[in-house]
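In this section we walk through a basic example: taking a raw amino acid sequence and producing a predicted 3D structure, encoded as discrete structure tokens. The instruction is simple. Fold the sequence below.
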Amino acid sequence: MTRNIGIPVCRALIAYRQRQYARVVELLAPIRYHLNSFGGSHAQHDAIQRTLVEAAIRSGRHDLARTLLSERINLRPICPYNWRARARLADRLGDTAQAASARARAEEQAAVGAAALG
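The resulting token sequence is shown next.
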């Protein structure tokens, strides 16, 4: 497990810090469905998945980013992060209408969450 999951995740985190986003995608994409086998919390798995999404957007892997975000949104439609990331991707693709819509949805969800904590 350490060789197959742990080391690639550690290398990906170092690559992300070094802004080597294509390398992050190369390391995390093949193992994204196997992260649960390594243990850790849902929050830790989510952090790694978010790292992959961000790296896909920043490396120009827009098709992969779109797929990852679609998966995330289907699993958790109420998650401001997902919609903010979708807005950033739409910005990169020059789709200002979709970016504005996604951003508005994220802000609406964040406001509801903040009110609930209230």
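Looking at the output, two observations stand out. DSSP finds six helices and no strands in the chain. The two ends are 42 Å apart (CA to CA). In the next section we compare this with other chains.
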